[in-house]
Amino acid sequence: MQEFRDKKLRGERITALTAYDYPTARLLDESGIDIILVGDSLGMVVLGYEDTTQVTLAEMVHHTRAVARGVKRALLVGDLPIHTYDEPAEAVSTARALIEAGAHAVKLEGGVSHIPQIEAIVAEGIAVMGHIGMLPQSVREEGGYKVKGRTQSEAEALARDGQALEKAGVFAVVLEIVNPEAARQITSALSVPTIGIGSGEHCDGQILVTHDLIGLFPWFTPKFVSPEARVADEIRKAVQIFIRRTRSGES
Ligand code: KIV
Fold first, then answer.
1. How far is the CA of 209 from the centre of ligand 1 (A)?
2. Mind listing the pLDDT tens digit for each residue in 162-175?
3. Per the residue annotation, which of 59, 109, 166, 176 is the catalytic one?
4. Which pTM does this prediction carry?
5. Residue 184 near residue 173 (C-beta atoms within 8 A)
6. Closest ligand 1 atom to Cα of 176
7. Is the CB of 81 under 6 A from ligand 1?
8. Average pLDDT over residues 176-198
9. CA pair distance 87, 156, nearest whole angstrom
10. Is the pLDDT of residue 103 over 80?
């Protein structure tokens, strides 16, 4: 994982996107993306759940296997789903399940509160990506997807989380919907790279849910995303042409 620290040192931005299936993984990999995350956003953009809190380990393993078949060069990271890493021993066995499914590393949500779990996974030789700021697995307690690090005390708590994660041995830290100035400060204080999502331009890399980037989940797009394609529109257009052709008796 030294390559990601080296990229940070060289000022080379790290690129990361999510995938949940073989063709998407293969397309991202062939396009040259650095990191492919099988995120538990799977629950919303693929499985049709309201949020990520219903995603199971069996679902993550199933989709990680499919993605692994399409990845030749990118780093493949698997997300630990909610309540599968409440204790260090459980965290290790969940991480192992994702590695056996083909992930090269795992990601989990939480800062200072999750150091024992991270240390236990790292001690097994499994690379861990941290995730702080807005934590989607806590969206119900939080009452929505809100910006983190706006106040001085929130920014200081995030900075402590970042430091604790680096000390515990993570190779990178996702900063989700963090106030851009707080994200900038965390980024400059850490030697491991920060990968931002909705956290401004000062992170060492950026990650997005691929469905948001390519316009494949048109019913909701986060404010901070500028889609680069409208794949949902293309699908609707192709399906309507097929329906018309079939109903009119054309082959
Ligand atoms: O689940 C996910 O897709 C994520 C990223 C958006 C960071 O955690």
1. 6
2. 999 999 999 999 99
3. 176
4. 0.97
5. no
6. 7
7. no
8. 98
9. 26
10. yes
